[in-house]
Amino acid sequence: MEEESELSIHEECGIFGIWDPAGDCARTVYYGLYALQHRGQEACGIAAINDRELSFHKDVGLVGEVFDAGRLDQLNGTMAVGHVRYATTGGNRRENAQPLTLKYVKGTLAVAHNGNLVNTQELRTAFEYRGAIFQTTTDSELIAYAIAQERLRCSCVEDAVCQAVKGLRGAYSLLVMSPQKLIAVRDPWGFRPLCMGRRGEAILFASESCALSAVGAELVREVEPGEIVVVENGEITSIRENCVNASSHMCIFEYIYFARPDSILCGQSVHMARRQAGRLLARSSPAEADVVIGVPDSGLDAAMGYAEESGIPYGIGLVKNRYVGRTFITPGQQSREQAVRIKLGALRSCVEGKRVVMIDDSIVRGTTSRQIVSLLREAGAAQVHMRVSSPPFLAPCHFGTDIPDREELIACRYSMEEIQTLIGADSLAFLRREDLHQMVPDATCGFCEGCFTGTYPIRF
């Protein structure tokens, strides 16, 4: 999205938190955030509690750029929460980095948020008429204010959280830290993932299970949609007052693109889901070809599945520069276009003179796909058949993924034949919408597919 008003910031982020009586929690969060770096590459932060005193550090940049050993030593404590952030143009400011921290009459709070509210303007206006002065342009600050306000009327912070979230509509996976408690919260629709783990006496929460594995913790379970989990001195309390929805609606795009392949979401391996998408594509959209390749990284697993199902050999046709971030979440169209050739190179020995099936996870505007097809042709590919391991995007996301308005979505502007011509492919096919659920046969949750259907779980 090239231009974005300050009040409609769409973001895809990662959160990580820990309670550990052994201390040194900030260092554990640091490693957890490293494992979640794929979810946000523009800003990060850690807040820690040491003997009820809150300390924090956050800034624009990658985890390894923002923190060093000395900084982590200053954040030592028995509780800590961290955040990696991605924001669209206009939202990448230092003050928007998280966790957000508050000092108020009842003490201190730190809040880390993954998701996007759909009633942001309504909440902001209400707070402003009560005299609130905002320091950021994020909806996360609204959540922090709502909790602090309710805390003035409630006897404990978890009751304040329970009351505050009743006024929120949209996606929010939250970690809230007070001087004595670590609280994990998931919205009643379960749009964004959040799981709980253990490492000895330590209790941990993370956006994805891969972050738990990275710090030697074991996945215990998902935080359920609407659930509030409270950790105090190692004791866990579950509040299910807001667990009112009959079924969850986790973003299906977590499996297609966002999550790391070694994560488990709702009981479903992300790697196996992507592999299954490739198999389904091979069945519904076969191609006569000599080699199957994937666009790194999230297209690789689907390419393996396509190769397995079709019998066409799998090859490494595109090489990724590991020091360049994801082009899908690079704000500004010009930046995306410039980044493709820096990010990817075609392996001539794999594709020269061959009919190539190229698997990618999605097509948004079409610019990146056109450039990758061009790279393969320059490397001598005789044919390029593009297969996409998701259905066409037909609508924007309102719950925390940077999928733009319909005017920018190529599938809303052109027919399938026109898209094929625009990207320069010899053939083009997408995963069928009816195959989405077959992609995740082991998942224990329902899904939001609004970006593919234009129908959302929430009215707004």
TrEMBL record:
Documented EC number(s): 2.4.2.14
Q: Of which family is this protein a member?
A: In the C-terminal section; belongs to the purine/pyrimidine phosphoribosyltransferase family.
Q: GO MF annotations for this entry? A: amidophosphoribosyltransferase activity
Alphabetized, the UniProt keywords read:
4Fe-4S, Glutamine amidotransferase, Glycosyltransferase, Iron, Iron-sulfur, Magnesium, Metal-binding, Purine biosynthesis, Transferase
Binding of [4Fe-4S] cluster, residues? C251, C397, C448, C451
Q: What does this protein do?
A: Catalyzes the formation of phosphoribosylamine from phosphoribosylpyrophosphate (PRPP) and glutamine.
Species of origin reads Pseudoflavonifractor gallinarum
Q: Which SUPFAM superfamilies match?
A: N-terminal nucleophile aminohydrolases (Ntn hydrolases), PRTase-like
Q: Which residues form the active site?
A: C13
Show the NCBIfam families listed in the entry: purF (TIGR01134)
Q: Which InterPro entries does the record cross-reference, listed alphabetically?
A: GATase_2_dom (IPR017932), Ntn_hydrolases_N (IPR029055), PRTase-like (IPR029057), PRTase_dom (IPR000836), PurF (IPR005854), PurF_N (IPR035584)
What catalytic reaction does the record list? 5-phospho-beta-D-ribosylamine + L-glutamate + diphosphate = 5-phospho-alpha-D-ribose 1-diphosphate + L-glutamine + H2O
What are the Glutamine amidotransferase type-2 domain coordinates in residue numbering?
A: 13-234
Which coenzymes or cofactors are required?
[4Fe-4S] cluster; Mg(2+)
Where is the signal peptide, in residue numbers? Answer: none
How many cofactor units bind, and how? Binds 1 [4Fe-4S] cluster per subunit.
The molecule here is called Amidophosphoribosyltransferase
Q: What pathway does the UniProt record associate with this protein?
A: Purine metabolism; IMP biosynthesis via de novo pathway; N(1)-(5-phospho-D-ribosyl)glycinamide from 5-phospho-alpha-D-ribose 1-diphosphate: step 1/2
Listed binding positions for Mg(2+) are: S298, D360, D361
